């Protein structure tokens, strides 16, 4: 799940720098970026360095973002629904390339609202004082070199063999804690992957026991909606900032 989230984040970051989005899509992203509710729960500003300099390592900006995001209140269902509505309506041309149809919006909204809390809990796991996503990225970076947007894309898009990563990446307490959350909340989702994990990490990896030293840093502050949370209003903000907001959204929900 970490890998999939990072892949989508990298793809969206690359799109900000390299792709020409349609005007309706750009407007939709700007609408989201100017929403007080979306910014309050997604806190996207720490990701801006990645969009303004694609050659830097993503590790520190992502760590800063997750520190901020996990300390913030969770997104409410109203905010999540408004984000999905704006993206699916404004970016219909871009999303159609992936097979999305306008009739899918309600189903996508329901899925995001259902699984967002679990994904948020996963990305807010900590091993001691270190965020688990940060730990995983750092361990990978120590092996493959600096993780820029492009190297992250290559690593998680099938151009590199992730199965050869050592156990300090694949079999950590962080990975086990993430597995436990997924297996508890979405039984059967991992399927045959559970057997693969047992083969690589040992039978105890999938025994459901909570690994030592792992804590949850996700804030339990109640989500706050303004009266406009159901229909974001457009304001003036740069395209890079709007893309960073939606990048953070889909990185979290992937």
Shape: globular
What's the story with the biggest beta sheet?
3 strands, antiparallel
Gap between N and C termini: 8 Å
Task: Determine the fraction of residues in helical runs and give it as a percent range.
Answer: 55-70%
Strand proportion: under 5%
Strand order across the largest sheet = 2-1-3
Query: Ranges with pLDDT <50 over ≥5 residues?
Result: 1-19, 233-251
Assign the structural class, choosing from mainly alpha, mainly beta, alpha/beta, alpha+beta, or little secondary structure.
mainly alpha
Helical segment count:
14
Overall radius of gyration = 18 Å
Mean pLDDT: 80
Please tally the β strands and state the result: 3
The sequence of SSEs as H and E is: HHHHHHHHEEHHHHHEH
């Amino acid at each position: 799940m970490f890998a999939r989230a990072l892949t989508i984040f990298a793809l969206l970051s690359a799109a900000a720098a390299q792709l020409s989005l349609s005007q309706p899509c750009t407007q939709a992203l700007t609408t989201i970026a100017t929403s007080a509710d979306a910014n309050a729960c997604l806190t996207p500003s720490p990701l801006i360095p990645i969009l303004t300099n694609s050659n830097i390592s993503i590790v520190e900006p992502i760590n800063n973002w997750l520190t901020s995001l996990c300390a913030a209140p969770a997104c409410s269902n109203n905010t999540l629904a408004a984000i999905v509505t704006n993206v699916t309506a404004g970016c219909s041309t871009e999303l159609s390339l992936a097979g999305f149809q306008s009739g899918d919006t309600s189903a996508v909204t329901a899925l995001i609202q259902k699984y967002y809390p679990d994904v948020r809990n996963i990305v807010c796991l900590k091993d001691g004082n270190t965020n688990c996503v940060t730990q995983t990225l750092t361990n990978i970076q120590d092996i493959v070199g600096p993780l820029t947007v492009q190297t992250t894309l290559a690593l998680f898009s099938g151009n590199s063999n992730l199965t050869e990563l050592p156990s300090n990446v694949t079999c950590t307490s962080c990975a086990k804690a993430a597995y436990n959350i997924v297996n508890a909340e979405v039984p059967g989702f991992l399927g045959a992957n559970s057997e693969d994990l047992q083969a690589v990490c040992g039978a105890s990896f999938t025994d459901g026991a909570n690994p030592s030293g792992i804590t949850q840093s996700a804030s339990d502050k109640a989500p706050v909606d303004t009266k406009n949370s159901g229909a974001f209003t457009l304001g003036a903000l740069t395209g890079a900032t709007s893309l960073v907001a939606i990048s953070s959204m889909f990185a979290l929900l992937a």
